[in-house]
Predict the 3D structure of the following.
Amino acid sequence: MAFDIDMIKEVYGKVVERVDAARKITGKPLTLAEKILYTHLWDGNPSKAFQRGKDYVDFAPDRVACQDATAQMALLQFMQAGKDKVAVPTTVHCDHLIQAKEGASTDLQNALNISNEVFNFLESVSNKYGIGFWKPGAGIIHQVVLENYAFPGGMMIGTDSHTVNAGGLGMVAIGVGGADAVDVMAGMPWELKFPKLIGVKLTGKLSGWTAPKDVILKVAEILTVKGGTGAIVEYFGPGATGMSCTGKGTICNMGAEIGATTSTFGYDDSMERYLRATDRADVADAANEIKDYLTADAEVYANPEQYFDQVIEINLSELQPLLNGPFTPDLSTPAGPEMTEKANANDWPLKVEWGLIGSCTNSSYEDLSRASSIAQQALDKGLKTKAEFGINPGSEQVRYTAERDGILGVFEKLDATIFTNACGPCIGQWARYKDPKNAPKNSIVHSFNRNFAKRADGNPNTHAFVASPELVAAIAIAGRLDFNPITDTLINENGEEVKLDEPTGWELPPKGFEVKENGYLEPVADGSGVEVVVDPNSERLELLTPFTPIGNEIKGAKLLIKAYGKCTTDHISMAGPWLRYRGHLDNISNNCLIGAVNAYNKQTNFVKSQINGEYDAVPATQRAYKAAGIPTVVVGDHNYGEGSSREHAAMEPRHLGVVAVIVKSFARIHETNLKKQGMLGLTFDNESDYDLIQEDDTFNFLDLNEFAPDKQLTIEVAHADGSKDEIKVNHTYNQSQIEWYNEGSALNLIKKQNA
């Protein structure tokens, strides 16, 4: 039986009436995304048609999910909200704080030894406020959500950008910062600009070496890392219905890499099969009763150009196995000779040192079974892996079932390391090097979602390429980046020329899923007696102090850093070893912007102080400004804040005294996070004004006292030579968000309202 089945039935009980009302109001057939959005309006039945990409709308998500790295800050904020219990079903999943090094059992025990204080905190807060808790080793948040909580037609938010994975089971699932999650957990409406809609029509059929991963790698090539910003991507067509539920999850998962608000698929037979296989026949039965309402209206898919803002068509029968990278998830290269040519032209190492399979993107039973079919061929044909091989199962249920069926044993015979059911290398939790900063240039392939510089192992010289689990297995065996298993052969131990056959596998385990201990802890019914203790001397956890409003008089602000090129949340607040401080705002602020490239010297973590004219680390420089009472500004390029949903990338500058971030364009989640923390997130009206900003500049906000929706702001930029430029900046704040700014943060406003 499913978790929260009564809630799911309550949602389904509203779908027909609300969708019918939305059709009438909009006067047209509806996409699946629109049906889910209109079903989840905070005010109930729809009363107006919303303008895509323009109207801010209040929604009522069905549930919230948090992973341990972001849950710390989210729950520290929730503790200030004045509530006794979460208002919607909520879960916490311990998957980020487990470092991959030697193997599952050793690594898990090390994590328990090192991070026990944090795990105990999360468990006790969960118990107190009615939150379901998944222990360390239980699995990766998004695989666990897909197996236990996701349901067709539902809406959820999660404090991780890859919450979108649940779109594989027909949800609108959206990654947010912790402050957004606090709104929903506190019973408040959740605000989102009504998304634009991108339709992706899949024709043909996947076969041979192509996999669902190749679909999203191709979409990333087409749309780039910012092409999906502000939009929901909806997949449809015969190629979509012919794909497994977990394959759909893989595609939706990496929608985060194109900046999409989320991605989704209409309810179909593969989703029903998955629900029944994961002991949720009750959800499948309930969904079947309204199945026409859990996918788009037929007219939409018949004439998609009339109903989507953009339509892409991909013929799966013509799709090739792809590798995307290095350093960005949208640089796509087909396996084979084209990779040889590109690698030689760009000096990418062709020798591959590691092949890694897993992460929330590709750690299902189907993924492991198909990759293991390649591993089994290596054993049968006398081949050994030329690269090292690592596996991260997605959940304890997947791991236990895969071990029972001999899948993990096949990998182990090839000397693969089976890591904990956790994120591991995908989130930078990989003890690959003693000194990552000075590690050698090399290439790795993985089935993860992100491949920014230093992302997996902390080594700026690691060239990471994203591929399907099947192709990762083949390349790990071959040891070469340009190996094409469709055409190329290998020499085995006996000197014989052999060729790998096409991968095979199972959509679902033939003998069903099985697990002895799934790692779930149910909260007590009444948590009023549960005490949450935070040691005031802890280096890992720190109770929050409310932010003070910045105000409408910003004069004499200095430039902290002008970031050059790509500046993701990894650049603003690194993961890896810094994950240990995710619950301690002051300590983790020592990584603030240390990965951003200074536009004036092209170095990282080395900026000029206008107090003494000397160069120093970004956090140290900013702390000196804060001590002197001097406000500061950060300037950035396009898609600033791309990547993870981590709100630390907004909270750290706010904590240290940065008042405004001015960029060419923002990634959606990061812009929202800045707003939630009471900061100014602004964009240049004229992008070329970025070039006007000089190293010794001072910023005077001339009309911030007139801060209002849809009104430009004017900033005087005073240069060291006495000259001045007046620039116009834009913003997307509505009146409610301006109130967050005026109160100092969205959380301050919640506390005020609850009081």
